[in-house]
Design brief:
The chain is α+β, with helices and mostly antiparallel strands. It contains 7 helices and 12 strands. It is 32% helix and 31% strand. The relative contact order is 0.13.
């Protein structure tokens, strides 16, 4: 396992020129750009696992006989503020392997002048290996565990994969909501979905929170497979979701977590990509701290027919900078929107559970 470790150092504190490339409008770091690097790092680590720790160049995919793609991002959770500006280290390691898949754990740390390391972010990428000719699943190298710590990491990766499979089986696109969820949805409708039910708070129909961006995909953003780089799509989705959360709360917001990303299909170079964002869930008015859960869907548009095909589905969570409540309540109007509302609620509950578990384990 330790042979798969890799890291990237970004010396923001000592390089004003580098920091200028990553700075946002508020003097901090552009989180979307750091996500882009994390996706690239997870891919590099996966190839390192397949080709050996001494590999220096990927070479041609056809000659290697296989390629690796990001299947999903399980979670990326912010554990501490990215400010003040410090040197940042991005690192990762393969912690679990299935038949043709790998779980890559990533970490973002701030490096202080005294050598103290502050963990800023933890997350996991799910990578899959495919045959370069048939595009079918290709077996990956098994992991050799060399210490109790590596065994614990392997168990963590295995449990993450099982939880993801369990959530897929419980998906609202497959099975109806539980009786408890149906009751919560009905209670929300009685309280917020009817005129006069919000008192001092503002109701916003989910369908009115749409925010859209349409772009042409250029070859400068291609990956080694000659498709649009997944990390670039992550950055675009993050920035659109941030804009939507800011407009909804009418305030600057702070990133809390990337709750999930699914990569259904690659995005071809030269295609027209439509990113559509909407607010899916908000904490009840008056609850502290308030959070906003936003979904972003990426669709490739066929210019001849107008047909759209979904390639990616992103879910993010933000909270107002002041830590206050969200005074606007998003309310679904259709059954499809109600299912998205429940999915957002599930994502927030899972995030609370995971952060609670990490707080109980300082060593994590």
């Amino acid at each position: 396992m330790h042979d798969t470790y890799a890291e990237i150092l970004l010396p923001f504190a000592s390089s004003p020129e580098l920091f200028e490339r990553y700075t946002n409008a508020w003097g901090g770091l552009r989180t979307g750009m750091l996500m882009e690097h994390l996706d690239s790092l997870a891919g590099s680590i996966s190839y390192k696992h397949m080709l050996g720790p001494d590999v220096e160049t990927l070479g041609r995919i056809r000659e290697r006989g296989f390629y690796i793609v990001t299947a999903s991002v399980d979670r990326l959770d912010i554990l501490a503020p990215l400010s003040p500006v410090r040197d940042i280290r991005l690192s990762g390691i393969v912690i679990y392997t299935g038949t043709s898949s790998m779980e890559v754990a990533v970490k973002m740390e701030a490096l202080g002048a005294s050598g103290v390391e502050d963990t800023l972010l933890l997350g996991r990428f799910s990578m899959v290996c495919r045959d370069a000719r048939t595009h079918k699943a290709r077996p990956v190298n098994p992991l050799i565990l060399g210490s109790p710590e590596e065994t614990a990491l392997y168990s963590m990766g295995e449990n993450a994969k099982k939880r993801r499979q369990s959530l897929a089986l419980r998906s609202l696109s497959r099975v109806p909501p539980s009786s408890t969820e149906a009751e919560e949805l009905h209670t929300m409708y009685l309280q917020y979905g009817q005129d006069g039910g919000l008192s001092n708070y503002e109701r916003v129909w989910m369908g009115e929170t749409h925010l859209e961006k349409t772009m042409l995909m250029f070859p400068q953003e291609r990956n080694v497979h000659q498709k649009v780089f997944g990390g670039y799509l992550m950055r675009l989705a993050y920035e659109l979701g941030f804009a939507n959360a800011s407009l909804f709360t009418r305030s600057h917001v702070t990133f809390m977590s990337l709750d999930s990303i699914s990569f259904a299909k690659p995005v071809p170079i030269g295609s027209i990509l439509r990113l559509t964002s909407q607010v899916l869930h908000t904490t009840p008015p008056g609850e502290f701290p308030g959070v906003v859960h936003v979904g972003v869907q990426a669709n490739v548009v066929d210019v001849r027919t107008g047909h759209e095909q979904t390639t990616n589905d992103f879910r993010f969570t933000w909270y107002p900078d002041d830590g206050g409540a969200v005074v606007r309540q998003v309310v679904p109007k259709t059954y499809q929107e109600a299912m998205l509302w429940l999915e957002g609620k599930r994502a927030l509950e899972i995030g609370d559970q995971i952060r609670g578990e990490r707080n109980k384990k300082p060593s994590a």
